């Protein structure tokens, strides 16, 4: 994977096909390309989140995740290739345990809201879930390593936890806590 892009507008995709990392071409609506696109969108969403004020440790973690997502996308772009390592999944497990330990236990559903950074983490969480579904669909049609699916599953969980962390960090003064869902049932019961 040492090829570097020297020309962006090649016009080779005008026929509805795109090149994979192994030099083969496939349709732009192929399951593999859809999964690659969802991972790319997720990485771009994290780039927007990184443009916000963040605690230094969260920023460092997200930068690492961006690099790992690029590896994941590279792996998806070359059928049969392994680039994302199992250690990346373990790193997410460790981060989940670390950040979740400091949070109060959830007693009710929360809304994807609060500070801007928390809301952006929630948006990225939903894109991670979509990317995971795309990888699962791809794996049903052709061989895919386990690590990409596991990584996206853990990452969506971690982004949920980080959204809660970012609301508490309250770096824009608009948060401070989770935004709880108020169901009609709870309202009727006086909750």
In short:
It is an enzyme of class 2 (transferase). The chain is mostly helical. It has helices at 31-50, 56-77, 86-101, 116-141, 146-169, 184-188; strands at 17-19, 25-27.
Shape: elongated
CATH class: Mainly Alpha
Q: Quote the distance from N terminus to C terminus.
A: 57 Å
By CATH, the architecture is named: Up-down Bundle
Q: How much strand content do the residues show? A: under 5%
Name of the CATH superfamily = Cobalamin adenosyltransferase-like
Family: Belongs to the Cob(I)alamin adenosyltransferase family.
Organism: Rubrivivax rivuli
Protein name: Cobalamin adenosyltransferase
Keywords: ATP-binding, Cobalamin biosynthesis, Nucleotide-binding, Transferase
């Amino acid at each position: 994977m040492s090829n570097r892009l020297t020309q962006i507008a090649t016009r080779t995709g005008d026929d509805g096909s795109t090149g994979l990392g192994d030099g083969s071409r496939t349709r732009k609506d192929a399951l593999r390309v859809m999964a690659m696109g969802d991972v790319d969108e997720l990485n771009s969403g994290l780039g927007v989140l990184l443009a916000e004020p963040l605690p230094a440790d969260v920023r460092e973690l997200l930068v690492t995740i961006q690099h790992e997502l690029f590896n994941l996308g590279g792996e998806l772009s070359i059928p049969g290739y392994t680039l994302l390592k199992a250690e990346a999944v373990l790193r997410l497990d460790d981060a989940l345990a670390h950040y979740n330990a400091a949070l109060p236990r959830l007693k009710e559903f929360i809304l994807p809201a609060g500070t801007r950074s928390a809301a952006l983490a929630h948006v990225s969480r939903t894109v991670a879930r979509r990317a995971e579904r795309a990888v699962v669909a791809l794996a049903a049609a052709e061989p895919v390593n386990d690590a990409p699916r596991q990584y996206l599953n853990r990452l969506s969980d971690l982004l949920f936890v980080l959204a809660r962390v970012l609301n508490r960090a309250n770096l824009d003064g608009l948060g401070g806590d989770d935004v709880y869902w108020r169901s009609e049932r709870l309202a009727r019961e006086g909750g």
